[in-house]
Each structure stands twice: as structure tokens, then as C-alpha cells.
Task: inverse folding
């Protein structure tokens, strides 16, 4: 089985995939750059123990990371606890999707993994909307090339910044209120934040579609994708496993040489 690890700035996803690419288990945990290889290895071991999985069932490990400070600990943990050296997805070196942005090395490995998975599962052209630490819209051309992206602050980042700078504003639940005109502080915050991200999604999708040559399928992924999709008709499908599929395809391509 394959252990796929997607290291994001806020969350890290660990996925167990079988030989057919089906996700058997997936965990979302908070990314911590202070863990040592041993601490990280023990943490992963605990995840496996809870799921009643044998570490020896893993014969391949593949990683997409946008947190370089954690790479040393992650590689060390994989070598010590699995006796395997992980394969790292480097956007500028992989050959599964052509990157046509100006600086391929600056593209996030997580975005490339999701693009590989999205193009394989849904075809092209395609727009992938990722709702995580940042809200990122990725454009994949009809020819299957990674064209570029639009990046905005993530929903939680926006909330934290607003609440942190405003003494009287409370933390809120992420849900869209029934009315746009908030009649209390919580409703006002929910309306502004959620309708704001829905409106931004609609506009970016509209502009992306024009530049891609017409109506384009939109796939949402990331920790807050479901929340946004419930109120956003511009999103066609929510797929939480895009990066896992992309890492699986990348690992298979490496195996085949």
C-alpha cells in the first residue's frame, strides 16, 4: 500500500491508498514544524494503531510538501519507522503535467498534486478551487497544462486577522446566514465572510472560464470546500481526495520509470 502525505501550511493530510488508488484511510492533522523525526514517527505510528494498520503494509511513501522546514523530520521519520525513503514531488521535475507558469519551482507541490489528480479524474479544461490556509484557484488548460493560479487569503486566515485586530468581534461558526443584511454581529460577520468568498469564487471562475475558452468544470477541494460549496452554484463537485489521487499517480509514474 501507498502512504501519501500532503504537507500544507495549516494541515497535513496522511492517506493510505491501495494498489488501485482507492483511499482506504485519510487523516487531517495540524501541521507542526517543531516536531523531531522521532516525534513525528511516533505520531504516525499512533494513527496507524488507531486504524489497526501494520506499518509493514506500507511499501511506498510519496510526499507533497510546501513546508520545507518539516521535510528533514518527515524524511527521517519515514526512514526510521517504515524503513523507506519517501519520494518527494518537485513541481519543476515531475512529468505528469506541464507547468506553463513562469516559475515552475515556485508552484506549490500540493497544487500540482491536485492538478494531476483533477485532470485525470475530471478531464480538461478544469478549474480547481482549494480552500485551505489560502484560497487558491488553479487553471488547467484544455491541453492539460497547469497555466497558473489566483491566490487569496484563506477563510480562517481572514477571520483570525479580523478578530485579532478588532476587540469586540467574536469568533464565529463558518456558515452562510439566511440573509445578507446581518441583524447582529455574528450574522454580519457570517454574511460578509461567507458571501464574500462565494462572490469571489463566482467572479474568479467567470474570469478563468473566459480565459480558458468557455464554461469550465469547477472542482472544490481543501478543508473548507464543503462549507463554500453549499452556498456556491459555481462549484460543480467537491473532491477531498484530489491531492491523494495526484500523489498516487505520481508514485506510479516513478515506479514505472
Result:
Amino acid at each position: 500500500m501507498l502512504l501519501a502525505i500532503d504537507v500544507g501550511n495549516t494541515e497535513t493530510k496522511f492517506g493510505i491508498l491501495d494498489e488501485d488508488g482507492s483511499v482506504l484511510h485519510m487523516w487531517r492533522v495540524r501541521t507542526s514544524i517543531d516536531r523531531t523525526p522521532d516525534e513525528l514517527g511516533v505520531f504516525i505510528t499512533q494513527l496507524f494503531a488507531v486504524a489497526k494498520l501494520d506499518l509493514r503494509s506500507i511499501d511506498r511513501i510519496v510526499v507533497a510538501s510546501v513546508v520545507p522546514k518539516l521535510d528533514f523530520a518527515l524524511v527521517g521519520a519515514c526512514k526510521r519507522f517504515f524503513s523507506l525513503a519517501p519520494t518527494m514531488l518537485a513541481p519543476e521535475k515531475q512529468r505528469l503535467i506541464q507547468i506553463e507558469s513562469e516559475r515552475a519551482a515556485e508552484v506549490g507541490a500540493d497544487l500540482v498534486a491536485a492538478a494531476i489528480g483533477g485532470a485525470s479524474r475530471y478531464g480538461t479544461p478544469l478549474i480547481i478551487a482549494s480552500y485551505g490556509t489560502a484560497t487558491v484557484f488553479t487553471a488547467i488548460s484544455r491541453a492539460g497544462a497547469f497555466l497558473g493560479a489566483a491566490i487569496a487569503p484563506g477563510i480562517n486566515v481572514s477571520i483570525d486577522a479580523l478578530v485579532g485586530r478588532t476587540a469586540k468581534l467574536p469568533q464565529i461558526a463558518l456558515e452562510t446566514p439566511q440573509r445578507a443584511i446581518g441583524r447582529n454581529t455574528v450574522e454580519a460577520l457570517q454574511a460578509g465572510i461567507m458571501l464574500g468568498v462565494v462572490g469571489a469564487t463566482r467572479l474568479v471562475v467567470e474570469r478563468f472560464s473566459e480565459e480558458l475558452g468557455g464554461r469550465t468544470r469547477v472542482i472544490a477541494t481543501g478543508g473548507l470546500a464543503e462549507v463554500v460549496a453549499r452556498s456556491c452554484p459555481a462549484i460543480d463537485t467537491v473532491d477531498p481526495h484530489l491531492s491523494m489521487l495526484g500523489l498516487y499517480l505520481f508514485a506510479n509514474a516513478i515506479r514505472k520509470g
